[in-house]
Amino acid sequence: MKLITLFCAFLTSFAFAANVPDYEKEKRWAEHVESGLMDGDMVWVPNGDREFMSILTESESETKKAAIVVHGLGVHPDWSGVIQPLRVSLTKQGYHTLSIQMPVRPNGEPGEEYMGLLDLADKRIDSAIKYLQDNGYDIDLLVAHSFGTTMSSHYLANSKSNPIKRYVAVGMGVNSVKFLPNISIPIFDVYGTEDLESIMNSVGDRAKASKHNASYTQKMIKGDHFFNGQDALLNQTVANWLK
Asked: Is residue 81 part of a domain?
């Protein structure tokens, strides 16, 4: 009996550890971002008994509209692939942007470990919304890339009272499919001609899962998963959909 109790305690502690972000890694990312930040200001968003690093970039126009930007697996809010170009581009399209640090796991861990962080990711998006509302912004848009689309889709499917009106999902993969039937706001599902295999293979599944949503749009444009060399094309494609 004692052995069984110890084994159960081990499993419980292992499961808990697998669902805890690597806060030291987040701290290192914050130091990295702060030292090289060119556009926007670093802000710390309260989140329960902790806070997380984010980048607030003011719009170039007179507006209250804001967009929350969610990065992909294991990186940070100023990631050069998709995130940094889009968060800055949106400020020229009538949006303030808040690019937020999502929970990360230690280097070398498989992507599956991130599925255990979805509830924590929900709380960060909620905290980002509260931060923007407390500072007088009107949250209009959620923009996400790669695994950030899984986190964002999970949030939208499970949070019915949020103020988000539109959703741009860049490089959305198979992990988001099960959440799409529970999302009814306009979705722009954009991906590259040379995107990851899991994204290319789930194109039909994503469309089928969104058949209830008359405002779901899917578009393939030139580019790889990070749209290397195609930032301008991606930015303009998103801008055209927002219009």
From this structure: yes
